[in-house]
Amino acid sequence: MSDTDTVSDSAFDYDVVIVGGGPAGCSAGVFTARYGLETAIFDRGRSSIQRCGYLENYLGFPAGIDIETFYELIHDHAEEVGCEVVPELVEAVSSDERGFVVETQDGDPVTTERVVAAARYDAEFLRPLDEGTMFETYDHDGETHERFDREYPDEGGSTPIAGLYVAAPAHDAEAQAIMSAGHGARVARTVLADVRRSRGFPDEVAAHWDWIRSDRDLTDEWADRETWREWFDGRVPADHALNEEHFVELREREIDRRFETYLSDEAIEQRIERGHRRLLDHLDDDLVLEKAREIKTEREGTKTNG
């Protein structure tokens, strides 16, 4: 589901580049790509999740899940919604007068308007952007070392450098895989709010929620565009700086987006079936066949007993 107000800036190769393809990076990418931003996820560094022997505390997998399958799932999800997953190592991120230049070990530099750092173990690629506040010194075994300051970004991932966001390393957000994924989504929402502000949305309506609902909930006055217009107008201060034409354009696009989040029962059922089928693509074929035989036997037994 992409937002109708998003138009990729052709001056950049990507709207957003995410460095790190673990739970934080892929989660952030899902949100930015679903909004309609051209998003690339660079993933060929050291991933902390790949050091895990088996993942047992990630919600939604009752018996746990192996890391290989989990990694395939999060990358498949990111690609499904429009992210480009690039298996290259980012060596440096620098800035120019327009945005950022991302230099990789194997490929040509790419340009982007925004960067999300999501690599837990190594933030050295951010060195070209450091103005003396991004890294801190510490003593270990009598020697002085330097590391990325986890307090450099705020809780939403924003940094003193416009357009640079950090999902990892940051605070204690990557202590567990599910926390990393949640923080990646939080940082992505910070990115989206900034994007919306840059495109004219006042602060009061800049926040974005990615939320699908049943059109059965779209009832009474909320099925009427005029109600949404009144809601939008009521949220925005009367002294906003937008000219009337731009204000109306943003408001109508926002209303369109909100109506698009309501799906019919038929559309929901189609998505349910498609979602289940996609999960099957990641399951062991022999186990799927074994379960299918069990289901067939149970159904035949039910018919016989009936």
UniProtKB/TrEMBL annotation:
The organism's place on the tree of life at top rank: Archaea
Q: Which InterPro entries match?
A: FAD/NAD-bd_sf, FAD/NAD-binding_dom, Ferredoxin-NADP_redctase_2
Q: Which SUPFAM superfamilies match?
A: FAD/NAD(P)-binding domain
Molecular functions per Gene Ontology: oxidoreductase activity
The FAD/NAD(P)-binding domain sits at 14-118
What UniProt keywords are attached to this protein's entry? Answer: Flavoprotein, Oxidoreductase
Q: Does the keyword Coiled coil apply?
A: no
**Where does the record place a coiled coil?**
none
Can you name this protein?
Thioredoxin reductase
Please name the source species.
Halalkalicoccus jeotgali (strain DSM 18796 / CECT 7217 / JCM 14584 / KCTC 4019 / B3)
